[in-house]
């Protein structure tokens, strides 16, 4: 059962990461959350499979009595295949990603991210999309994405946005501490623009498990190693 719970946790974390990568926002009718981006030519079969995986993960957690944060519960229950297709369609595919993953991390295929790696309940993703017009200040861009998250997760704890060097250019970084399943998950975000692409790097780990310093150090090392090449 523990393995099923961990698998459910991972499925939810990956889905959440994919949607936040696109910039989540509340739907106009207040019925949930959607991802920005084009919905044309979305891989319908993959979206249906991903939706089924998410529903099964929620069912597993409900069966073992694990309660979600109300905001996260509402978001996940209202995700539909169109939202998933939007997240998939936003990804730029003609790129090469290089990341130095520490020992114990497993690189996995993803319908949403250009690069995805997992170690236990820790996740790391790199998602690239074509750079939107008018992105002149990466710190302001990161702030805009953070503000979108705050409209959904108002109770989460947000860090200040700092300027960092990543992949040979300037990036904007922040983290949020979000309560999930009665535990806190730290989600680290770094955004940067290079070669006509806007790249989001995200690392997640559960806090209070006795390995916070190790998890943070490994994710920081992976962030420092990210290299994106447009083909």
At the fold tier of CATH, the topology name is Protein Transport Mog1p, Chain A
Described by strand count, sense and barrel closure, the largest sheet is:
8 strands, antiparallel
Name the beta content range: 25-35%
For the termini, the CA-CA separation is 44 Å
CATH class: Alpha Beta
Provide an overview of this structure.
There is one protein chain. By secondary structure, the chain is an alpha+beta fold. It is built from 6 helices and 12 strands. The protein has a single domain, classed as Protein Transport Mog1p, Chain A. Strands 4, 5, 6, 7, 8, 9, 10 and 11 form an 8-stranded antiparallel beta sheet that branches. Strands 1-2 form a two-stranded antiparallel ribbon. Strands 3-12 form a two-stranded antiparallel ribbon.
SSE layout and pairing:
Blueprint: H1 2-22, E1 24-26, E2 33-35, H2 44-63, H3 70-77, H4 81-89, E3 95-98, E4 106-107, E5 115-119, E6 122-130, H5 138-152, E7 157-158, E8 162-166, E9 169-180, E10 183-194, E11 197-206, H6 212-225, E12 227-230
Antiparallel strand pairs: 1-2, 3-12, 4-5, 5-6, 6-11, 7-9, 8-9, 9-10, 10-11
Helix pairs in contact: 1-2, 1-4, 2-4
